[in-house]
Amino acid sequence: MPTKPLPSAARKPRTDALRNRERIIEVAKEAFSVSGANASLDDIARQAGVGPGTLYRHFPSRDALIEAVYRAEVEKLAAAASGFAEAMSPLEALRAWMLLFVDYIAAKQIIAPALDTLAGGPAKLYEDSRDQICGAMDALVQRAIQSRDIRSDLDPFDLLRALIGAAHMTHLADWQQSAKRLVEILISGSRAK
After folding, report:
1. Are 137 and 160 spatial neighbours (Cβ–Cβ below 8 Å)?
2. Domains of the chain: which residue ranges?
3. End-to-end CA gap in the chain
4. In terms of CATH, what superfamily is 14-60?
5. Which residues of the chain are under the pLDDT cut of 50?
6. Predicted local distance difference test score (pLDDT) of residue 164
7. DSSP letter at 9?
8. Angle, helices 15-35/62-87, rounded to nearest 10 degrees
9. Beta-ladder partners of 150
């Protein structure tokens, strides 16, 4: 008896389709940071090496593409926590992730004008990403507490609050360097005695 083909929704995307999607997101991030939310989608498709149909197949609207760019940044940040934990000592993994978080803040500031154009605003998107970010920070802090590298009374969200506070200084030319110095201060002040 012949088997029925799987519905298209159940099939795994082809490797080239995934590559195209990732390339579109990468190019779109750059385009939105340079030209804002009104960056030409046709130009994004062309620079990504795909046709407009391919772009719209992956991202049926401008909002969908803007959201995908932001979500990709959050996913990279969250995934980095596991990678750092596997490759580094607990304290070094925490430091590396916090430095990456500063870079994430910089990327978020660049695409923020595009995010602000989303229907209904970006609040829901930010809320959805909060769990991933807090989960990554919590896992790294708990690991460093267990290794006795940092104080056992440290609340992971306190570290995030301090770094998020640096995001309010992005109008200053050297805010990223200042935020990276803050990471070192936070790590030093969090060490177990």
Report:
1. yes
2. 14-60, 67-190
3. 70
4. Homeodomain-like (1.10.10.60)
5. none
6. 85
7. T
8. 110
9. 191
Compute the distance between CA of residue 78 and CA of residue 143 in angstroms, rounded to an integer: 15
Q: Say what the pTM is.
A: 0.78
* Res 191: pLDDT: 94
pLDDT in tens, 81-134: 999 999 999 999 999 999 999 988 877 777 777 777 777 777 777 888 889 999
Do 185 and 159 contact (CB within 8 A), yes or no? no
Rounded (5°) CA angle 30-34-36: 100
Architecture of domain 67-190: Orthogonal Bundle (1.10)
The C-alpha atoms of residue 173 and residue 132 are separated, in whole angstroms, by: 29
Q: Residue 10: which residues within 8 A CB-CB, separation 6 or more?
A: none
Structure tokens at 193: 């005695």
Tokens 């790590």 correspond to 187
3-state DSSP assignment of residue 187: helix
8-state DSSP, 1:
-
What was the pLDDT predicted at 168? 78
pLDDT score recorded for residue 13: 65
d(CA 140, CA 92): 10
Q: Which residue has the tokens 């990468």?
A: 26
Tell me what pLDDT residue 4 has.
Answer: 56
Amino acid at 27: V
How many Å is the maximal CA-CA distance in the chain? 70
